[in-house]
Amino acid sequence: MPHHLPAPIALRQPEQLTTLVENRTVYSLEAFELNVFETHRTAHQVPLSMGHVVLTTMLQGKKVMHLAGRPAFEYLPGESVIVGENETMVIDFPEADEQRPTQCLAVAIPIETIRQTVDLLNEEQPRAETHLPWQLDTTEHAHFQNTPELTGTLERLVQLSRDTGRVKDVLANFTIQEMLVRLMQTQARQLLFHNYRQHATSHRFAAVVQYIKQHLTEQITVEKLSELACMSKATFFRVFKRELGLTPVEFVIQERIAEAKRLLRNPLTTVADVCFRAGFNNTAYFQKLFKQYEGVTPGVYKRQCVG
């Protein structure tokens, strides 16, 4: 899938920088604090602690993150990391310079805002499995690829932070709650889509995900999926989207596009062959969907991979 990046934020001019390493621009609102960090030279083992739960999102450049109890990992544009309330990030900037600076968003969220949002969800919109209530995970699924929905919410947070209107704090409260929901949906996707076998007997949606992955090339109906989830069609559709942030149909398409990409990387396949082997039954529809999801046609993608 293409990287999902919020709209670009202009870098500071050299004379506006107070430091070349993690120069910080702060926008403070009642509901959250938005920070834009940029680094214009290589640096290593730079500690950063913000005293709140923080959602960080890479905009440009490359970092290497060191978080307690986890192996170091590369951190790239289109990715986000959630950092716990009292956690210190230690960061390397192996490639940063004046021509290729790093830039990162960091949204600091008061713990009370998180608690209120999670309590409201568990009370008003409980998840399908009562033993897995809504919660924001700052350890297990804290590093992930952005979804389009999360990226859209982050863009609105940036716009609100720079707005001067009198209602911006009211809007900010709603938007930070939406961002928390999007974050938890993104983490739920990560848990189920990557570890579905492990949870297939304890989570009805994991069983659904497993069925979809095993029957991609066949006709998959919402009737069959709702039956697997032991729900009515309407309830299944609604709860699946609420918990994971996309509909069952969108998930099936996403999986078929991923399979098509895998097949297209084989130099011996044709686009028409890939279309049917990935579970699509109409080449024009496949071409249209593929371009919508990947930004290029299957033919162009294939040439990029094998050329």
From TrEMBL:
Pfam families: AraC_N, HTH_18. InterPro entries: AraC_XylS_family_regulators, Homeodomain-like_sf, HTH_AraC, HTH_AraC-typ_CS, Tscrpt_reg_AraC-type_HTH, Tscrpt_reg_HTH_AraC_N. One of its GO terms (molecular function) is sequence-specific DNA binding. Residues 206-304 form the HTH araC/xylS-type domain. Keywords: DNA-binding, Transcription, Transcription regulation. Coiled coil: none annotated. PANTHER family: ARAC SUBFAMILY (PTHR46796:SF6), HTH-TYPE TRANSCRIPTIONAL ACTIVATOR RHAS-RELATED (PTHR46796). This is AraC family transcriptional regulator. It comes from Hymenobacter sediminicola.
